[in-house]
Write a structure and sequence with these properties.
Structural class: alpha+beta
Helix content: 25-40%
Number of helices: 18
Distance between the termini: 23 Å
Radius of gyration: 32 Å
Shape: elongated
Strand order of the largest sheet: 11-1-17-16
Largest sheet: 4 strands, mixed
Strand content: 15-25%
Number of strands: 17
Length: 486
């Protein structure tokens, strides 16, 4: 279940981010579904280029060849773009425009000219610029009753800022944007908070798990915990076969082999039951019957087939009749009754929860570190999950500037027992634990180039709340309640 939740964090397009300013007097600003920032000018700076296709159409036509003798042409070192000859009337406007758009925040104008611009005297470069200058682009409005045509990009941008931009700017204490936009903004305070919260949720995606639970339960899936206290979700509810129940020889052989060899896989199962010659034609009918018997057991939940192909039997139910009385358990020492039984409160008939004592959880986490890597779960995850079950999600008591991002989730309690409803479809009990088959593509990190962390300046504090999974289930609601975590 936790591996599935992390799939939503692997790429920005799989979740959304909700940002909240901790000071109601200091609003956040945003244009459409773009980046969020405290600085209105920052979000307005690139608004024209992102919203231009919605308000204007471009048309490029070829004009007359450029006349005149030019001995050189200015070229951008990094991209190779030609700005024009230094003695051409369009050179200085093009130079200023490039500086204001890309370099004004990093260097002075003289430094920009010296380090980023080169003057070349190549005749081919001059000829290429002349051919480029022949093309002229016009911009026509699409929202006006009578379309207006602009011959330059500058005039078009001025019209956009005067007539359309004021209506596009959104402001408020809480704003939401896509995962990509949350990392593309120029506000370093917001970017640092988003990164910090994403890293915290990647370590232990508790809120993503809580957000997915209602949708998976609605789909008829079942939650259960297996060895090492790892939480799984399956289309079939695991249930141990009753002791003493009589099965056919084939079913009995499967149950005994799986019980004797936990995490066995199908090829090894056939080898153990049918022998070395199971691939010969004589064993074709027996192999088909073995596959049918295994399918029946998996469908009934009496054998669990995990996403890696491992087969195991469900855990046997706890025999309450063999447990000592509650007052004897309490003398077992440190909240752990003798014989490794469950805590006294759970065995004495009190409302049972999945969270156990901190000592017991830490011991189970220590066993995990030395156990099977396929079943491993970190002590931090186990402890945090147990604490979340007992206390539920809590909001951070203090917030700093900017405060942490928490990934939005429906504030539900962690289910202590598997869901009792029947599955929506007859499918094998394959836990949804790996392979992002129903979500977007997978990558190793949510951001190709991590945003560098900076020391926050004395800016208005903000807290970023919540990244929600995108399309967790077709019936998922468009929004959910907000929860915060430092």
């Amino acid at each position: 279940m936790f591996s599935t939740s992390k799939l939503f964090l692997e790429r920005p397009e799989r979740h959304r981010v909700k940002l909240t300013s901790s000071d109601a007097a200091v609003p956040l600003f945003q244009i459409q579904d773009g980046p969020v920032s405290f600085d209105r000018a920052l979000v307005e700076r690139n608004a024209f280029f992102t919203a231009k296709p919605d308000f204007y159409t471009e048309e490029t036509v070829q004009g007359e060849p450029i006349k005149g003798n030019f001995s050189n042409v200015a070229r951008v070192r990094a991209t190779g773009a030609l700005l024009g000859p230094t003695n051409h009337h369009g050179y200085q406007p093009a130079l200023r425009k490039l500086y204001e758009e890309r370099f004004s925040r990093r260097m002075s104008f003289p430094e920009f000219q010296q380090t980023e611009i080169e003057i070349v005297t190549d005749e081919q470069a001059v000829a290429d610029w002349k051919e480029q200058a022949r093309s002229t682009t016009t911009y026509t409005t699409t929202k006006e009753a009578e379309p207006i045509v602009f011959k330059t990009l500058f005039d078009t941008e001025q019209h956009f800022r005067k007539h359309y931009l004021p209506e596009l700017v959104k402001s408020g204490q809480t704003l939401e944007c896509s995962g990509q936009a949350a990392r593309a903004g120029g506000d370093r305070h917001v970017s640092a908070a988003v990164r910090e919260a994403w890293e915290a949720e990647s370590r232990f995606p508790q809120q993503i798990v809580n957000g997915l639970r209602p949708f998976l339960m609605e789909a008829g899936l079942h939650f259960f915990k297996h060895r090492k206290r790892i939480l799984f979700v399956s289309a079939t509810k695991p249930q141990r076969h009753p002791a003493g129940q009589v099965f056919s020889d084939g079913v009995t052989a499967i149950l005994q082999t799986v019980e004797a060899s936990p995490r066995i896989k199908r090829p090894d199962l056939a080898l153990k039951i049918l022998g070395e010659a199971h691939d010969t034609p004589e064993f074709t009918a027996r192999k088909a019957q073995l596959a049918a018997d295994l399918h029946y057991l998996i469908h009934e939940g009496q054998v669990i087939e995990f996403s890696d192909g491992a087969l195991e039997l469900p855990l046997a139910p706890l025999d309450k009749s063999a447990q000592p009385p509650q007052h004897q358990q309490q003398r077992g020492g440190k909240g752990k009754p003798g014989g490794g039984q469950r805590p006294a409160a759970a065995q004495a008939g009190a409302p049972a929860t999945e969270a156990e004592s901190e000592v017991e959880v830490m011991e189970e986490a220590a066993e995990t570190e030395s156990g099977d890597p396929a079943d491993a779960v970190t002590a931090e995850a186990v402890t945090a999950e147990a604490a979340a079950v007992e206390a539920g999600p809590t909001e951070s008591e203090t917030q700093t500037a900017p405060e942490a991002v928490s990934h939005e989730a429906v504030p539900t309690e962690v289910v202590a027992a598997p869901v009792e409803s029947e599955p929506a479809a007859e499918t094998a009990a394959t836990p949804v634990e790996s392979e992002a088959g129903t979500v977007a593509e997978a990558e190793t990190s949510i951001e190709a180039e991590p945003t560098p962390m900076h020391e926050p300046e004395p800016e208005p504090p903000a807290k970023v709340a919540s990244a929600t999974p995108v399309e967790a289930h077709p019936t998922a609601p468009a929004h959910s309640d907000e929860s915060h975590a430092s």
